[in-house]
Specification:
Blueprint (H helix, E strand, L loop, with lengths): L2 E6 L5 E2 H8 L5 H9 L3 E3 L2 E2 L5 E2 L4 E6 L16 E4 L3 E6 L16 H8 L23 E7 L2 H13 L3 E9 L6 E5 L2 E3 L7 E3 L7 E9 L3 E8 L6 H8 L23 E9 L6 E5 L4 H15 L1
Parallel strand pairs: 9-16
Antiparallel strand pairs: 1-6, 2-5, 3-4, 3-6, 7-8, 8-9, 10-15, 10-16, 11-14, 12-13, 14-15, 16-17
């Protein structure tokens, strides 16, 4: 079944290809070019070319066709695996890698790499999401647990649902947070006018994020975040909601984005009960080189 992404133009923004590049931050320019070539970009239900000049109140639709299962390819992409056994593996995903294939990015994803690496993956989510129990955004780095069979998948899914798993993130946010601890309890749903964004909305799903300040800089704060729920873009939405969007966030941060690798957000710690042994397992991962470099720059700035 086709998925349709809809955007309503609030003000004149020029060419439609440039408009889509600014709002579809999880899609590369080459991928957007394919949408135009396949006539999957419509304005007011009419197919348009990349040069179309959009106008206020134009309704832009991007049709995402499901990827045929036969096109899911095994790819020899290096994986940073922290743990692996017959049931699960824990992988440290780099920033910039999409978790599973979809129209526009059928290759180069974590699932493509996992299919090459392992002869057995759970299939409860379908072939395109083989082994995937939970996701993190393309530009978010860090830990994911992958299931090799459906028994493990069901048990891990239930742990995420019952909030018995542990997920801790580290992020750099704009502004100096004065209090050391905080709890953000605000419902999240689809943004009412910008469909690629999530937002705190009255009829959204219950969403709770806890944060702890780890270090303060001149104009930024390093925080540790713990999730009670797992909504799309939850940390990014909640931190922007309290006035401290993540550094480098192209969707929820200031218009002038710092860096080229997306938000400074890393899934650092992951804990769960092993589906077979019933033992609690916890894993920790190093911050990415890009993340550590930014912290060093902020420390130097604070010392001036």
């Amino acid at each position: 079944m086709d998925k349709v992404r809809t955007f309503t133009v609030a003000e004149v923004q020029g060419r439609i290809d440039k408009f889509l590049a600014s709002v579809c931050t999880d899609t590369s320019r080459s991928e957007l070019k394919k949408y135009f070539e396949e006539k999957l970009v419509l304005v007011n239900d009419q197919v348009v070319k990349p040069s179309y000049q959009i106008k206020p109140n134009d309704v832009v639709k991007v049709i995402e066709k499901p990827l045929p299962e036969k096109e899911i390819k095994e790819e020899n992409i290096p994986l940073d695996i922290l743990y692996e056994d017959e049931d699960v593996l824990v992988v440290n995903k780099p920033s910039g890698m999409v978790v599973h294939p979809a129209f526009g990015h059928p290759s180069g994803t974590l699932v493509n790499a996992l299919m090459y690496h392992s002869g057995s993956l759970s299939n409860l989510g379908g072939v395109t999401r083989s082994g995937i129990v939970h996701r993190i955004d393309k530009d978010t780095s860090g830990l994911l647990v992958v299931c090799k069979n459906n028994v493990a998948h069901r048990q891990l899914s239930e742990q995420f649902k019952q909030k018995t798993s542990t997920r801790k993130y580290q992020a750099i946010c704009y502004g100096v947070i004065n209090h050391n601890l905080g709890r953000i309890d605000a419902p999240i749903g689809r943004h009412p006018t910008i469909r690629q964004k999530m937002a705190v909305v009255e009829n959204g799903k219950p969403s709770v994020t806890h944060f702890k300040v780890l270090e303060r800089f001149k104009n930024h704060t390093l925080v540790e975040l713990t999730l009670e729920t797992g909504r799309t873009h939850q940390i990014r939405v909640h931190m922007a909601y309290i006035g401290h969007p993540l550094l480098g966030d192209p969707l929820y941060g200031p218009k002038k984005v710092v860096g080229e690798k997306g938000q400074f957000l890393h899934a650092k710690t992951l804990g769960f009960i092993h589906p077979r042994t019933k033992q609690m397992m916890e894993f920790d991962s190093e911050l990415t080189e890009n993340f550590q470099k930014m912290l060093e720059e902020l420390k130097k700035e604070a010392e001036k």
